[in-house]
Amino acid sequence: MQTAPPVTRKATRPRADALRNRERIVTAAREMFVEHGPDVPLDEIARRAGVGNATVYRNFPDRDALVREVVCSVMDRTALAAERALAENGDAFAALERFVHTAADERVSALCPMIASTFDEHHPDLLAARGRVERLVEEVMARAKAAGQLRPDVGVGDLMLAAAQLSRPPAGAACLSVDRYVHRHLQLFLDGLRAPARSHLPGATVTLEDLRQA
After folding, report:
1. Three-class SS of residue 104?
2. Which of 115, 122, 144, 186 is the most buried (most CB within 10 A)?
3. What share of the chain has pLDDT > 70, as a percent?
4. Which domains does the chain have, with CATH numbers?
5. For 137-200, what is the HEC assignment?
6. Which residue, 81, 55, 59, is CA-closest to 70?
7. How confident is the model at residue 172 (pLDDT cuts 50, 70, 90)?
C-alpha cells in the first residue's frame, strides 16, 4: 500500500490592497508618533491613514505591535540608506555624510523613547532590525577610516549617539519646529569627524555595547 505524498500548501499572499492599507497605517502612525508621541489615539491614526479602525486592529492587534512595526520600518529604511552608501564607488566620507543626513530624516531619534517605554525592546523583530543597522553603519564607517578620511578615535556608538541627540528637538521645543536646524548642526558634527583630527577627544571611543549598558 502506497502512502500518498504530503500535500504542500502554498502560503496565501496578502492582497495588494491589504498591503497598501498596512503601509498607509505604518506611515500615518510614524508621522503621528513623531508629532504627538506613542499615546496618540489609534482612531486618529486610522483617520489619517484613510482606513477604518477595524483595519488597524486587523493588522496590529495592539498598540505595542503597531509601535514595534513603526520602529522596525524606520530601521529598515535606515539600513537601506547604509546599503546605498556602501554601494557608492566615490568619496567614502561623502557617502557617510549622505547616510547620516538620510538617517536623520527618518526621525528615528524621535522614536527612541518609545523603544524603552512602550514595549519589549528585546523582541526578536526589533533585535534583528537593530542588528542589521548596526552592522551596516560599522561597514560605512570602516570604509571611511580605511580611506584615511574618518578620524580613528570615533566608534559607531559615537556616531549614532551624536546623530540621535542632534536630530532630537530640545526639551520644550516643538518636535517639528526645529527641523530646519537639524541638517545644519549635523554637518557641523560631521566636519568634526574628518581626518586628520584637530583635537584630542576626552574619554574612550563609544561602542555599541557601551550604549546598550548606559
Report:
1. helix
2. 144
3. 82
4. 15-61 (1.10.10.60), 68-213 (1.10.357.10)
5. HHHHHHHHHHCCCECCCCCHHHHHHHHHHHCCCCCCCCCCCCHHHHHHHHHHHHHCCECCCCCC
6. 59
7. very low
